[in-house]
């Protein structure tokens, strides 16, 4: 039995130990959630709770617009004893902007009591129409932030060469898109994602494009370490129910990956033996 399959822990109710590590931090769920696009804060809070996630990402720029002493924010209503914050640089179009916003994100982590949290989801996106990340800008910003002791999670196109370069400069993970942000089109770059997963020696988190639970399960079946979902939950008719379904899909996909699927055949094969059957 391989080390991957021998490490799986399932009980009779099929609850799976989903723990994974990023740098020196450990997380109890392989489902990560974004926090934008919800109808209201209560819906966001209940969806996060239903997902059983342990890591949520918040755009630092969005928090900048909140007035001081304003109580109705995600920072005030979520339980930061059970959740880790992943500040992100969404909305940044240049390297300099992303670096500045990343530093602000670290200060926000300190304000909620997560003084050892050095996480940053790095986004450098100058393209306003398709929201595709800038590979050169991302690499430059990532190198600077790694040198400043940030735990960098860079959002990238499904580019195997860039993914390897980011790994080599010390990023904690790479986060290739499945399809464009908010599109809900699922995994449109499967062959490139397979190459990234095959070559990576760090966790690979598939981010962007997940539209429904089957997309999440497929991403995990490919061998992804985790997935990050926002629009598929926030814009569902029932976000809370979709959050719960994403939790189950991630667990099912991970278990399926570890179990090792059967080989495919172009011919039918009887599932019941024919030996001993009289004609």
UniProtKB/TrEMBL annotation:
Domain Thiazole synthase ThiG: 22-273
Ligand binding (1-deoxy-D-xylulose 5-phosphate): 182, 208-209, 230-231
GO biological process: thiamine diphosphate biosynthetic process
GO cellular component: cytoplasm
Pfam hit, one: ThiG
EC number: 2.8.1.10
Superkingdom of origin: Eukaryota
Keyword Manganese attached: no
Location of the active site: 121
EC main group: transferase
Catalytic reaction equation(s): [ThiS sulfur-carrier protein]-C-terminal-Gly-aminoethanethioate + 2-iminoacetate + 1-deoxy-D-xylulose 5-phosphate = [ThiS sulfur-carrier protein]-C-terminal Gly-Gly + 2-[(2R,5Z)-2-carboxy-4-methylthiazol-5(2H)-ylidene]ethyl phosphate + 2 H2O + H(+)
Family under the similarity heading: Belongs to the ThiG family.
Subunit annotation: Homotetramer. Forms heterodimers with either ThiH or ThiS.
Name of this chain's protein: Thiazole synthase
Originating species: Palmaria palmata (Dulse)
Taxonomic path: Eukaryota, Rhodophyta, Florideophyceae, Nemaliophycidae, Palmariales
Gene name in the database record: thiG
């Amino acid at each position: 039995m391989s080390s991957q399959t021998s490490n799986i822990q399932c009980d009779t109710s099929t609850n799976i130990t989903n723990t994974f590590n990023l740098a020196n931090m450990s997380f109890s769920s392989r489902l990560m959630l974004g926090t934008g696009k919800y109808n209201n804060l209560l819906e966001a809070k209940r969806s996060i709770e239903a997902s059983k996630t342990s890591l949520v990402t918040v755009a630092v720029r969005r928090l900048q617009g909140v007035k001081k002493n304003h109580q109705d924010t995600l920072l005030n209503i979520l339980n930061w004893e059970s959740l880790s914050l992943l500040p992100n640089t969404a909305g940044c179009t240049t390297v300099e902007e992303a670096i500045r916003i990343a530093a602000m994100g670290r200060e926000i982590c300190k304000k909620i009591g997560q003084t050892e949290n050095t996480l940053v989801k790095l986004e450098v996106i100058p393209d306003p129409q398709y929201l595709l990340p800038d590979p050169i800008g991302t690499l430059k910003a990532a190198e600077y932030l790694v040198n400043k002791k940030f735990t960098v999670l860079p959002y990238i196109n499904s580019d195997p060469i860039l993914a390897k370069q980011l790994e080599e400069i010390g990023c904690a993970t790479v986060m290739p898109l499945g399809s464009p942000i908010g599109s809900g089109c699922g995994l449109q770059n499967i062959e490139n994602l397979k190459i990234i997963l095959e070559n990576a020696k760090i966790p690979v988190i598939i981010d962007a494009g997940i539209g429904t639970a089957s997309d999440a399960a497929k991403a995990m079946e490919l061998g992804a370490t985790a997935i990050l979902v926002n629009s598929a939950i926030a814009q569902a008719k029932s976000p809370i129910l979709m959050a719960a379904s994403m939790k189950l899909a991630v667990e099912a996909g991970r278990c399926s990956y570890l179990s090792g699927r059967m080989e495919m055949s172009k011919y039918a094969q009887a599932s019941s033996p024919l030996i001993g059957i009289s004609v």
